[in-house]
Automatic annotation (TrEMBL):
<dbReference type="InterPro" id="IPR021096">
    <property type="entry name" value="Vibrio_phage_VSK_Orf152"/>
</dbReference>
<feature type="domain" description="HTH cro/C1-type">
    <location>
        <begin position="21"/>
        <end position="62"/>
    </location>
</feature>
<keyword id="KW-1133">Transmembrane helix</keyword>
<dbReference type="InterPro" id="IPR010982">
    <property type="entry name" value="Lambda_DNA-bd_dom_sf"/>
</dbReference>
<protein>
    <submittedName>
        <fullName>DUF3693 domain-containing protein</fullName>
    </submittedName>
</protein>
<keyword id="KW-0812">Transmembrane</keyword>
<dbReference type="Pfam" id="PF12472">
    <property type="entry name" value="DUF3693"/>
</dbReference>
<feature type="transmembrane region" description="Helical">
    <location>
        <begin position="87"/>
        <end position="106"/>
    </location>
</feature>
<keyword id="KW-0472">Membrane</keyword>
<dbReference type="InterPro" id="IPR001387">
    <property type="entry name" value="Cro/C1-type_HTH"/>
</dbReference>
Amino acid sequence: MKIVELLDRTKHDAGVESDYALAKVLGIHKARVSAYYSGKEAPNEWACLKISEITGIPLDTVIATVKAESEKDDERRAVWENYMKRLGGLAASFLITLCVTVTMLVTSPPSQAAQGKDLGPVTFCIM
């Protein structure tokens, strides 16, 4: 994900369309939003926190996204990018664990399934 994508998602999730409206939602000046979109500036911690609150994207993911894109030093950028990859792996592991747990909770034991008992709605997890 890129900073521009974070900003666009924030607009969408906040139900706003203009940069001015986004600036109001983030509690910053419109010129700063323009600077974020142009790449002249990167969102600061406050903007990252607001983006996280509005989009539901974890704060560490927002910060890592911003740092990975805005970091000038190649070595430091690589560290942020590796951190983001690890975050992605942790999120995937969490989702798999969650899906297995939910499946175990809603799936009947074989003895009940053989009897054709109706257990109500079943949840499917697609990844």
